[in-house]
Amino acid sequence: MATADPETDGAYAELLDRVERIENVGNAAGVLYWDQQVKMPDGGTPARSKQLSALQTVRHDLLTDDAVGDLLADLESQDLDDEQAAVVREIRRQYEREVEVPGDLVEELSETISEAQQAWREAKEEDEFETFEPYLDRLRELHVERAEYVDAEKDPYEVMFEEGEPYLPLSTVERIFDELREGLVPLIEDVQENGADIADDAFAGEFDPEDQEALCRDALDLLGYDWDRGRLDTAPHPFMSGTQFDARITTRFHETDFVDPLTATVHEFGHATYQLGLRDDAYGTPLGDSRSSGIHESQSRFWENHVGRTKAFWERFLPTVKERFPEFEDVTVDEAYEAVNQVFTDNLIRVEADELTYHMHIILRSEIEQEFVGGDLDVSEIPGRWNELMDEYLGVVPETDAEGCLQDIHWSSRFAGFQNYTVGSVFAAQLWATIEEELDDPEAMIREGNFGPIREWLTENVHRHGQRYTTDELIERATGEPLTAEYFLDYVTEKYETIYDL
Questions:
Q1: Are residues 423 and 324 part of one domain?
Q2: 10 is a domain residue
Q3: Mean pLDDT across 289-310
Q4: Residue of 177, 179, 176, 183 whose CA lies nearest to 494
Q5: Which of 92, 343, 397, 469 could make an S-S bridge to 473, C-beta 3.0–4.6 Å?
């Protein structure tokens, strides 16, 4: 943890003490959220929503206390070192975004989110959008109201986007989306119309959940997951939750598909690796917290795609798959590689999508939520609009809302977050290009199961900085240039033209 300069007259030290209490309250809420998704019985929702609401209100009250504002004002004229200045910058940003938001709004929003998540689970299980509809509509009203308190001069959707990605303008992300549309759509069409046949059914079969879990644990062991600071569980929607001392991951299993749970586990491992790579001595301060949603997603997409979907990884891991599932004894590395990288021409589910069509799922969701938040789309029109855009962008229409607009948990808590999945993919490709230049044959490291140098490079260049640098500064420090879609487009073009013999 950064220490105070005596010349600050204790103001910095007192600010750190207050911030650590604020962070601890937030982290405690995170554990309750994890329990709600993983262990809590369905009937626990009424109490849990009150508990989470109380913690969020306490956190808000601690952050917006007049004393915090006074300390920030005192520190404006102090001579701070770079780390201290970064801590104050981040706390000031949080304070200024929260201080005008009424506490009762914070409490109602938190309680509604908790209730909405249970309603979403029930709606998805029963394929009844109407169950979720009133919660979704109320959440939109509350989030818009909150955004107007934060910054009445900005579009509410932009304010919401800045919540998870504070230093990367939405206009930059929209420019990247335009570049991806231009590059990905013709590539997807080329694969669909002219691509050679590949071994897309190499792993067909039915699989016991216990065997799938054992395989996921094998993968985590190989990658170097720290079981002393983590655990693997199941949840309706895979996620990671925790701190640098306790980073838990979840996955889910499918009766006829072990590849999706495996890649989801590797994805969440990437999130956990970032969390565990944060500085232990900076816990409770912005220096010990992750930079942003987009940077976090870059780590999960890096491990899922640039490691877990490579031929080198399957050269190493395929023997383990055969041990767990002997029926695949005759599957070759090339067949395994093609199977885990097939382009799905009829896929309905975002988290099961390939690297190409995945981003059309993201663009679809971003457009719908912008229309909904902006008041141009009624909540009752979401299923129809979803199906319309699925047909336009992906050429497939879901038969149920459970496979359509109810498939993701995200709208039960927030809006303007899907863009960060694409930001993460783009940055992950940029990171991989840099690693290829700076490490000696990283593909050989993957093939040999020697993941330590890759983890260490990411920790040194991304994880350990916490929030010391803004998003754009961190990207340039890690890769030497601003965020660009160039590396991602080059990567997927070369990869899929090779796989599909285009």
A1: yes
A2: yes
A3: 97
A4: 183
A5: 469
